[in-house]
Amino acid sequence: MLPSTSLNPQDRVLPLYFPGALVHFLVRHDFQAEHLLERSGLDPTALEEPEIRASFQTVRRIIRNCEQAWGRPDLGLHFGASLNILALGMVGQAAFASTTLGEALTTIARYLALRDPLLHYQIKSDEDSTTFALNGIMELGDVREFITQAAFAASKAFVKQLSGLENATHFKMRSERLPVDYAGFLGAHVTFGAADDCFSIEREFLDVPLETANPISAKEARQYCDAEMAQMGEAMRFGGVVRTLLHSRLSNIPTEDEAARILGHSARNLRRRLAAEKQTYRGLIRDVREQSAISMLQGSHRRIEDIAHELGYRNVGNFCRAFKRWTGQSPSAFRRD
For the whole model, what pTM was predicted? Predict the structure, then answer.
């Protein structure tokens, strides 16, 4: 049985901000909201309620409906370019009040999960530039191209809204070139067939001061966002997804490389994502085994040998020694107490 913090395509955990904005965008282009929401289980009034959550499958259905209605492969670019940074709520406020463009973009990347928990930017800086690599917390399947287009077009729009800069961003995309006017939306700096979906901005642009800078407002908005992030469930974090995988394969724990492949990431990226949450793969294995062992010992009369085997231990002695490191007691003494 998976833990209550599991995250899968059926979990209703996603806010409707971006799906709602997409539907409203198409309604402004004379499409019918009811048609765009077909087979999603939602009606147009649901898009006005901030507390309603939807599953990834529901969001995927809305995106697919909208793409079919649009009829061209460039919906993501048009939609992303239409977004306004202040429509991101307190996330947008925090970015808008930042001191520099680099600080504003880092703020958006840090708090993006408040608007779309499935997306995550891995940030890497060097002396010359900063790169923002776009990663999904689960494989996005047939809507990945749309989401990448929308994210990149929105990032370019946000850069212009914040700083007035038109062509400061270089984009790299995993997909090959489609019959889409990428240059018209993203500028001339677009590379296709790359290892990651990412964009980078040179240092000279990142240091551009923002006319809207207000340190007090920025601090207040970030404090609000920090509080909201703290309330997000563990399932919304990458470590929660890895935990779900480990719980589902207790008797045959995958190696770090195998887990990365299953989750659609490289081992290096998996380590980076976990490190950003101050976790390691080995530490998660230990935690999942400890929690599972305690639950099995408390909730059943199964033999200790059987529990050890289910947790992936070939030797019951190794399990008993590990359990004593975790709890200070042997499994049998723990069960007696």
Answer: 0.71
